[in-house]
Structures are given as structure tokens and as C-alpha cells.
Amino acid sequence: MKVILTGATGFIGGEVLKQLVQDPSITDVLVLSRRELPDGKGDNEKVKTIIHKDFSEYPDSIVEQLKGADACIWWAGPLRGLKSPLCLGGPYFFWQDTTQYIKTNVEYTLAAAKVFATRFTPEKESNKKFRFVFCSGTGSVVDQSKKLWFMDLTRKTKGQNEGGLFELAESEPKFDPYTVRPGNVMPAQPNILHSASSYAFPSVGVDRLAARMLELCKNGSDKRIYENDEIPI
After folding, report:
1. pLDDT one-digit tens code per residue, 113-140
2. How far apart, in whole angstroms, are the C-alpha atoms of residue 130 and residue 124?
3. CA 206, CA 32: separation in Å to the nearest integer?
4. How far apart, in whole angstroms, are the C-alpha atoms of residue 12 and residue 102?
């Protein structure tokens, strides 16, 4: 199975990359990234890093390198506390510009999904679909008119992505999207502070989150949305 992955340089994406490499059913991991992976992360024959500077468009040179992909795991998040144009996604408070935030968090995701849905699904056999697993967040709201009292833009932006993906699936029946909504994502081996915070906020281990996304990528599900407490396998 050939899988496209974004966000591989980050905390969550790095764990997803590790599990993809370890899974014998995954033959190829195509990492879409603005920059080369850190030393050691891409040192496996399964992994191919495709440098992609502009996630708003997909020229033939990029599409050709992704050809034959069966699924995509789309995660994008900034380094914590860093406001940088090199980072994709993340909560609004990491960003200085609302326009750029929406472009990065919504337009990039849906631009990729549309290309994958229209360019890759026609190649699939009648019983095969292209699966797109999107890492959203707890509290995500699809209804853009709903009044929210906290993290309004962040929650609606995630929901806008979800709505866009599910709408795309209606017009492209071989496009098969799923979304996971983690809360606080903790290390696989949390310390005392991490463990204590899990009692105050919805939490999930990064290893469990990655495992759920990989499972959806490989086998799909009759559920489209997985809330935080539904993520552990």
C-alpha cells in the first residue's frame, strides 16, 4: 500500500511516519514536505520525501511523484510557540495573520483533497477507494454559523475542512474521507504533568492517535468521525 503523509517533521506526523514504516502492509510512504526530513526520520527505503513549496497547487511534476497512492494521512501543525511560514496548520494563536491562517488550515487541505480525488480515484478499480484521513481536533464545528464562546476560529476552521471533505465525497464516490478529533495529544510515555493534565482535558497518546489514523488509512470504517475517546484501538 502506498500512502501520502504530511506533517512528518512534527510531533504527531513523526509518530505516524514511524508506524507507517514499521507496518509490513505499507510498501511506500510519500512524504510531502516543505523541507527535508530531520536526520534519521527518512532513513528507510520505504520513505520518499517530495519537497513541495506551495501546498495551494499541485503541478504535474508533483502529481506524477504521487501517482499510484492509495491513501493520504493529512496532519499539519506548527512547532509549539513558533509563528513561522514554514509550518502548516495548528491553532490560531500560533499565527499573526488571519488570512494566512485560513489559507494554511483550510485551502491547503482542500486543495490537496480535490487533486487526489480527481486525479487518483479514476485509476482505482471499481471496488477500491482513495482514503483521506484528516487530523482535526476536539470541539471542531462544521456549522460555520454557530456562535462559539471560545477558540471560535480554530474550531470552525477544522470544521470547515471536515465539511469540505465530506462534500467532496458526495461528488467523488471513490474519495473516502475520515476525520479524527483528538484533544490534548500526549507523548507515548507521558510524564507526571502529562498524566495529570489528562484528568482536566480530553487526551490521547500520540501512539494511539497514529495507530487509529493508520487503521483508517488501511481499512476504512463505517464511521466518518472519531471523537477523542473513540480514537484508542
Report:
1. 999 999 988 777 777 899 999 999 888 8
2. 8
3. 20
4. 21
